[in-house]
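[Automated response] Your request has been received and processed.

Submitted sequence:
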Amino acid sequence: MLGLSVRCDHGAVTERLIRTPAERWLGYARVLEARSPDTPPERLRVLATDGVRPVRVWTARNPNTPPNALDTLAQDGDSWVRWNALLHPQTPAHTLQAMADQEAAMSRPRWFHVRSVIVHHPNTSPTLRQELLAVGACRTCPSDTCPGFLPFRRRQSA
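Generated structure:
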């Protein structure tokens, strides 16, 4: 690492790591590794804790990422990483429960950004699904017109 760059944006001080060209290339190589469907689950577990954000995002998108790595990614400090972990069809039920609880605690009562996805996730427990439907996480359920969440519908019908 070359050092830190400190920047002030409208009163907020942010720190940004300045990486060497060699470190950037190594990060790019790890992104390619995280994207590859041939990467073994053991390696994906390691990549789930990588310091480079795109590596973690692509690890969350990899179809072979194991559930315990998805659990780690769902607790990441970066919202894009958490979102991609949520969209993975193998995200464990206990992780979905924790994500739903976190959104419920941090948001307004009628805000269902994460919970509207969880209600249609294939690994959502029936109990959690009923709780989410009862509070209105899906505005069209349980009617026959509910399309579900499209990425999950495609994967289930394939």
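Summary generated for your ticket: The mean pLDDT is 84. Residues 40-157 form one domain.
If you did not submit this request, please reply to this message.
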